[in-house]
């Protein structure tokens, strides 16, 4: 059940419309940074393997097989080690993920402002960011006045003044998007880690109990 929940959360994060709209963008030959998906794929793998290992543990307990329970325990230790490694990786890279996406956005924004022809897709990339995150412009002076002089790049409001008053910068929105998603990944990882610790303890207790009972 825990493996199924983790797998479901990971698949939801993987196919979330906001992240997929942004991370599948391409600016010329440059692909949007998709480091964020590394953590998601690890969660998907852990969830799927947990489901398989869970069946292994249940079958081993029903059959009272020390071999299956030992294999179950070994698989849990490996999964736990992978999860700890993924957690450390996520903690180290949590700020870098948003930073890379902001740099990608800034490059697209510069190209959108400088573009003189439709051959440059910077404008399309920027508009996708703006419409997906409901924001307009980077976190600087140019970004602050963008809704006034480049309303073609920003989500449409009733008036230019309203567009200016209600628009928030995209750097802040990108930070909010990825911090929220990484927060969910962190919660899922902690829940899985706690469940795994209990599973390892109980599987060893059961294995020892089966071994001791076989003596009599």
Automatic annotation (TrEMBL):
Keyword Iron: no
Family from the record: Belongs to the tetraspanin (TM4SF) family.
CDD domains: CD81_like_LEL
GO biological process, alphabetically ordered: adaptive immune response; regulation of cell population proliferation
GO cellular component, one term: basolateral plasma membrane
Positions of disulphide bridges: 135-170, 136-154
Cellular compartment(s): Basolateral cell membrane; Membrane
Organism annotation: Pandion haliaetus
Pfam families: Tetraspanin
PROSITE patterns reported for this sequence: TM4_1
GO MF, any single term: lipid binding
Membrane topology, as annotated: Multi-pass membrane protein
Transmembrane segments: 36-62, 68-92, 182-206
Name this polypeptide is given: Tetraspanin
Keyword Transmembrane helix: yes
Record key words, sorted: Adaptive immunity, Cell membrane, Disulfide bond, Immunity, Lipid-binding, Membrane, Transmembrane, Transmembrane helix
